[in-house]
Amino acid sequence: METVYDQLVTVLTEKFEVDAEQIRPDVTLAALELDSLAVVELYVTLQEHWQIPLEEDDAAAELTLNQLARAVEEQLSLAPEPSDRGAPR
Questions:
Q1: Residue numbers in the chain where pLDDT is lower than 50
Q2: pTM score, whole prediction
Q3: Which of 37, 35, 33, 30 minimizes the C-alpha distance to 68?
Q4: Which of 16, 32, 61, 84 is surrounded by the fewest CB atoms within 10 Å?
Q5: DSSP conformation letters of 32-84
């Protein structure tokens, strides 16, 4: 089973075409050169995939990938188990 972090890496490399060599747990979304619209799109993608709420704010681009993965994991622990947790669309 893929972890939230692994899934986040997959989304970033496949949907946002981020170079896999740039991706590390301590890198921020801003450092990956995701603009504010891309950050919002990433959040929407993650929310739709896991069917959880995520708060998007001005500081979201300054979150590290590890912090974002933990935020998703926290919401997942609070949410009822969805019937399908396949790959993001």
A1: none
A2: 0.82
A3: 30
A4: 84
A5: TT--HHHHHHHHHHHHHHHT------TTGGGSBHHHHHHHHHHHHHHSPPPS-
